[in-house]
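[Automated response] Your request has been received and processed.

Submitted sequence:
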Amino acid sequence: MTNKAVKGLLHPLFPVLIFLVFLATASGLKYGIEKQDRNQIQSSLDNEAQAMAANLEREFLVHLEAIRRMAQRFEASPGMSEETWSRDARNYLSDFGVYQAIEWIDRDFVIRWLEPLSGNEEVVGFNVAINPERRQALEQAQASGEIDISGVLNLRQGGQGLVIYVPVYAGADNKGFIAGVFQMETLARHLLTSRVLDAFRIRITDSGKLAYELNTSSETAPAFSHTTPVALPTLDWALTVTPSAAWVESQRSVWPLATFISVLFMGILTSLTTLLVQLILKRNQALLKTRRELESEIDQRKAVQQDLARLESTDALTGLANRRFFMEDLTHTLNIADRQMRQVALVMMDLDRFQMLNDSLGHQFGDELLIKVSERLNGLSNEKVLVAYSGGDEFMVCQQHVDDLDDVINLLGQIKQIFAEPFEVQGDAHSVTATMGIAVYPQSGLDADTLLRNADVALYRAKDQGRNTYQFYTEGMQDREVMRLELDKDLSQALANDEFVLYFQPQVELESAEIHSVEALIRWQHPRRGLLPPVEFIPLAEESGRITEIGRWVVMAACRQLARWQGTDFEHLRIAVNLSGRELDDESLVDHIREALESNNVPPSRLEVELTEEIFIQNIEHNRDQLSKLHKLGVQLAIDDFGVGYSSLGYLRDFPVDLLKIDRSFITEVTERHDDAVITRAVINLAHNLGIRVVAEGVETMEQLVFLKSHRCDFAQGYLISRPVPAAALEKALSEGSMITDTPVRSGL
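Generated structure:
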C-alpha cells in the first residue's frame, strides 16, 4: 500500500491534479461572489428606478398644480384682459422654466391666447381637438371639470411633448381651458438629474406602448433593467431604466477577480512545490540508478576509446589513413628528413571524371569505386610510403625516403600501373585514370602545409594540361595559381556586370562562295585585363559549375542577335553556338533553348548547336535523348573537333547530326602531309554518304581552300576568310564584300 501511495505521489499528473482542484475552487468562489455582486447591482438599479419614478410623480404634480392655479385665477377674474393674462402667463414661464408654452383655449377647442407668442404665431387659431379621441377627452373634461392630459403627441410647434388641459369652469359655464405645453426632452431633463441622464437609458411607456426614450446613444448593459409604474393623473405610464455599461462597471466589486487570482496563485504555488518534491525524489532515484550503471559504463568507454583511437587515424570508407593522421605523420617525417638531410615527396592525386561518373551512376557507385581504388593504392604502402584518403576523389601519397628524382618517377610509374587495368564496379568494368601533382621537400616547401598547398597547385596545373598526367611543382606556379583564383573570383561577377560579348566567325559555302552561317564565340571584356579569349576562363567556368549559366547567356545572346538581323540584309544568317558537357547534362536545356527562340521570335532552323566528339560519346543514352529533342525542335546539330581521339563511328548512325566539323589539326598541313589529306578526304566522303554536310576548321591559306573545294567539302572556316569579329564589324565586312569567299580563277576550279 505504501509503494502505491509513493508511486501516486510521484506520478507526473499529481501536480496537475492539485492545480485543477484549486482552479475549480477558485472558479466556484468567483461565480458565487459575482452572483452576489449582480444581485447587489440589480437592487441598486431597482432603487434608482423607483426614486426616478417618485421624483417624476412629485415634480409633475407641482407643475400640474401651477396650471390649475392659473385656471383658478382666470375663473376669479372672468373679465381678465388678454394683456393681464399674458403678463400672468409670462410670470409662470419665468418661474418654472419648463413650459414650452401656456395657452388659453376657448370652449370650441381653438387656441386664442398664447405665451410666448414669438415662434408660435401659427399655433394661434389651431383646433386642439385633432381627432375624435382627443375631442371626446376634452368634452369629458369640460363636462366634469377634471383635468385632461393628452399623453405624448407631436406638437404643432414641433417635436414631441404632452399638454395638460385644466378646464375653466365646468359644464355649461365652461370657458375653455388653460393649457400647459411641455416638450418631452425639456420636461424629462428638468425633472431628472444630470447624473440620472448620464448613467441610464430611460424608456417611458404609455399603456404598454413606447411613448418616449431618453439617452438612446449611450452603451447600455442589457442584462440589467427595471420597470416601475408612474402614478400620474389620467396617464398609464411606466418607467423602464437600463443602466449604462460604465455605471454597471462602477458598481461591480473587485472581490470576485481578487478571490479567483488569490486562490489560483495558491494553487500554482502548491503545484510547483509538489513538482519540486517530485523532482528531488526522482533525482535521488536517478542517482542511485546511475551509481549502479557507472561501473558498467566505464568499461564500455574504455572499449570505445580504443576504437576511437583507431578511427581517428583511419578513413571509415576506404580504410586508408585519413587526412588528419597523414598531416601529423608528414610533419613528423619532415622533422626527421631535416635532421638526416633527406628529401620527401608528396603526391596529390585526383581521379579523372569521377564527378561525372558519380553524378550519372550514383553515389553508391562512387563509393564502391573509391573502395576499389583504395585497395590497389594500399598495395603501395610500406615503411617508406604512406597512402591516405583526403576526401572527395583525392588521395595523398607520401614517399618518406627520397635519394634522387628517379625514386619519385618510379613511384609515379607504380601509381599509373595501378590504373592500367579497369576497375570492376557493380558488375561492369570501368577504365579510370588519375592526374597527379608532386611537391618535393625541401625545394617545394619547408613545412607540411606549404608542401601540401604546392602539391595542390601542381595538381591543378596538371589538370590544365590534360588528364592522366602529372606535374611537379616549380617556381612561379604559385603566382599563376593566385592569378587563376583572382580570375575565378571575377568570373562570379561577370554575368551580373554584363561583361561577356559575342564575336562571330563566318563559314563560307564553297560551292556558292556565299556566307550563310557564322559561329558565335564568347569573349570576356574584363574590366582590368581587357578582352580575354575563352581559353582563359572557360576551364574555370567548367570547374566552378558556372559554365551552364554562361552557356545559357550565349544561347540567349545569339537569339537576340538573330532577332536584330530580321528584316535586314543579314536575316539569312544562321548562328552556331557551342555546348559543354555540363550543359547537355542539364535536363532543362531544351526548354531553355525553346524559350530563347520563342521570346525573340526566331525560327529554330536559324540556330545551330555544336558539341565536341568527346561529349557525344559520353553517356550516350542520355545525350541521344537530349539531341533528339533538339532535332525535333528544329535546331541544327553539329559535331565539333571531329576525328580527335575516338575510333568508333557508330554514334554517327545513332545521333541526328547535320554537320561534321573536321578538326583544325588535320587542315593545318592538309596540303603538305599525305596522311592528313587522306583522312580529310575520307571524312568528307564518309559524311556525304551518311547525308551529313562537312565544315573544315582552321583554313588559313588559299591552298587549303582550293584543296577543300576540289574534294567537295561543303563549308570552310578560318582566318583566311575572317577572324572572329563583333557583330558590327561582321555586318560591315559582309556589306562591303571584303572577305575571301572564293578560290582564284586560275585554280581551274
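Summary generated for your ticket: The domain at 77-191 is CATH 3.30.450.20 (Beta-Lactamase). The first helix runs from residue 2 to 10.
If you did not submit this request, please reply to this message.
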